[in-house]
Amino acid sequence: MSFNLATYVLNAGQTRPDHPALIVPGRVRMTHGELTDKVAACAGALRAKGLSPGDRILLRLGNDPDFPILFLAACAAGCVPVPTSALLTSSEITGMARRIAPRLVIAHAGVACPDGFEVIAPSDLSGAPLPMSRWTTGSPDRLAYIVFTSGSGGAPKAVAHAHRAVLARKMMHEGWYGLRPDDRVMHAGAFNWTYTLGTGLLDPWSVGATAIIPGVETPVEGLPGILAAQDATIFAAAPGIYRRLMRGAWPATPALRHGLSAGERLPDATRQAWQRATGCDLHEALGMSECSTFVSGSPARPAPPGSTGYPQPGRNTRIDGECLLISTDDPGLMLGYWQDGAPVPPAGDWFDTGDRVRALSDGALVHLGRRDDILNPGGYRVSPQEVEEALADLPVREFAVGCVEVPGGATVLAVFYAGAPLDEAAASRMAETRLARYKQPRMWLRRDSLPRNPNGKLIRRALK
After folding, report:
1. Residue 92: what are its φ and ψ, rounded to 5°?
2. What are the Cα distances from residue 78, in Å, to 44, 106, 436?
3. Which domains are present in the chain?
């Protein structure tokens, strides 16, 4: 089988070239035909630049349509795009660049770039368009792109994916999205976030649907109005965005079928508030950079209360104790972590996702947290997510549960929170009625904000 990720993503749009592919309200409206033409033009420019199949291209781009276009163009030309957060500092990105040794860096003005590598702007690319018929094809198992893990659990790792990874995303179309060609999918994330790239752009385009990405200047409070004005049918965001949205009034959104949530655990209280406000369900997914999402609720099979959902149809998973494992034969699993110029494949038949779960009687999975998140106050194993779920209605802006070592060497549970000062006695009484004693926080620590990575994901290890 000869295959190219970019050809697969854009092929459905060839049957409806005048149908909108991308809308940035007030700024951009691009058809599927125009999108393919732009990818072909950039792919030709990369070839004219002298890049060869397999060359890595580090993308240092802001929240702009240039990002998905250049990602697909690199794949079309046989090169290997490496998307990275525009918020990384020069020091951070220099270390990451040295690990993957890019042939070229493409950057927007104002975005920090690594030292010691050739850097050009998107506007510097020129050359004859490379038509889709001449895009590089080959084994679906060959290297397509590299992404870095969020670093929320430690130093970011370089994750190498094959072209076939985009085929595995079809498991999400019914297993999470309920995706259809007539959908208008709006994603609240930035263009240069891999959650947005996959769920908000590549997947809708692969079925000929429309992607809607609000402009960078859009406040969270303005998202419901855009959803209504653009007749969005599916909305995707991180749990933190949903929490903020539920603080305000919700307009009529009759076209909206449901929402999608990923990035960190979705509190049940947030899901219920969304359901009350919109009349729609909210489907959560569990995933990771190494395998995208693989457990989720969906319109066809909603997750039972308190759970994340079910392994997506086609996924081969099993539970060993509390450890969630996925088969190394899964087509969406990474080729391996990039090391010394090549990916190092996962060993054995099963890959430990690092997630800890508990199965319900019908096969739905309750997420207990990441392996590195499990806390051990007083020798007890405690899932911080379980405690956070029980205390979800604390009257604070945001909070997270961690451990603190107190004088004498004992370790106790603590709630770190941002917002108005808590009535600690009332908070403790709430915990007593909802949690076993060993799960009850002993300290309530107010902070200006909680530590989060550039995509808003909590860095739990930094709490202490």
Report:
1. -65, -45
2. 11, 16, 56
3. 5-367 (3.40.50.12780), 374-462 (3.30.300.30)
This prediction's pTM? 0.85
CB neighbour class for 124 (10 Å; exposed up to 12, middle 13-18, buried from 19): exposed
The β-bridge relationship of strands 317-320 and 323-327 is: antiparallel
Q: Which residue do the tokens 């240069």 mark?
A: 192
Tokens of 201: 């752009």
Helices 66-76/32-48 angle, 10° precision:
60
Among 372, 326, 311, 339, CA closest to 151: 372
Whether 56 contacts 102, CB under 8 Å: yes
C-alpha distances in angstroms, 155 versus 148, 152, 400, 451, 462? 10, 8, 21, 15, 12
- The three state secondary structure string of 174-189 is HHHHCCCCCCEEEECC
Report the alpha-carbon distance of residue 69 to residue 18 in Å, rounded.
18
Give 342: exposed, middle or buried? Use CB within 10 Å, 0-12, 13-18, 19+.
Answer: exposed
| Tokens, residue 157 | 């790792």
Please choose, from the candidates 299, 304, 239, 225, the residue with its C-alpha nearest in 3D space to the C-alpha of residue 274: 239
Residue 236 · residue 185 · CB < 8 Å: yes
In this structure, what token pair is assigned to residue 190? 């930035």
CB of 76 closer than 8 Å to CB of 123:
no
What is the spatial distance between Cα 411 and Cα 442, in angstroms, rounded to a whole number? Answer: 10
**Residue 42 phi, psi dihedral angles, 5° rounding:** -70, -35
State the pLDDT confidence band at 424, using cuts at 50, 70 and 90: very high
Alpha carbons 175 and 154: distance in angstroms, whole number: 30
Q: Is the CB of residue 213 less than 8 Å from the CB of residue 197?
A: no
Residue with tokens 């997506």: 312
Instruction: Write the CB contacts of 413 (distance below 8 Å, at least 6 apart in sequence).
Output: 375, 377, 382, 387, 401, 402, 403, 439, 440, 441, 442, 443
pLDDT 10s digits, 85-141: 888 889 889 999 999 999 999 999 999 999 999 999 999 999 999 999 999 999 999
Lowest average pLDDT, out of 15-29, 49-63, 244-258, 443-457, goes to 443-457
Q: What is the mean pLDDT of the chain?
A: 93
